[in-house]
Every structure is written in structure tokens, then in C-alpha cells.
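Appendix B. Chain record.
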Amino acid sequence: MTATTVAGQAPATANRRNEKVGNVVSTKMRKPHAKYKKIMRTTKKFYAHDEQSSARMGDVVRIRETRPLSKLKRWALEEIVRRSSLVQVEDAAVKTEVEAAS
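C-alpha cells predicted for this chain:
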């Protein structure tokens, strides 16, 4: 039995880690209970390692599963897919405050 790989593709074992894409901002999700139909809040947090501290609230990011980095961190920031428009507004406000103080 021989193993063959297609040019340009990595072996299947190289990409076993899960990836998730989502917002940095946590939202309170609500959904009905399966049996009693009462509306309940459900949340799921993923603590991700961001080495450069580049992600901000509202950004859409891609995280990848990794070895345990601390008590809660099991994910690492892979890339920032899209920046939030809130960040641009806040940065502009901070710049005007700094210029006004000078």
C-alpha cells in the first residue's frame, strides 16, 4: 500500500486542528429550552491567545485550536478577518482629543 499526495495540498494529518470564525464581542444569545420552551440565555466563550494584542472589540477573527497555554486558553488567534467600524470611530475620537490637548 502506497501513500500519494496531490501537489499543492498538505497531508490530511497536518490540518487536524479546529478553526472557528467569530466576533470578539460577546453577545447574549437567547433560545428556548427544548422541553419547557422557556427563553434562556446561552453563551460560549473561547479564550484565545493574542500575542500582539491586535484584536479589539467588534472585530471578526479566526481562531485555531492549540495546546493548553494557560488555565483557560486553548485557542490562538490566527488572523483578523475584518476590523470593526467601532474601532475606527474610537481611534478618530482619541486622535482629536490628543490634538486638542496639544
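Further analysis of this model is presented in Appendix C.
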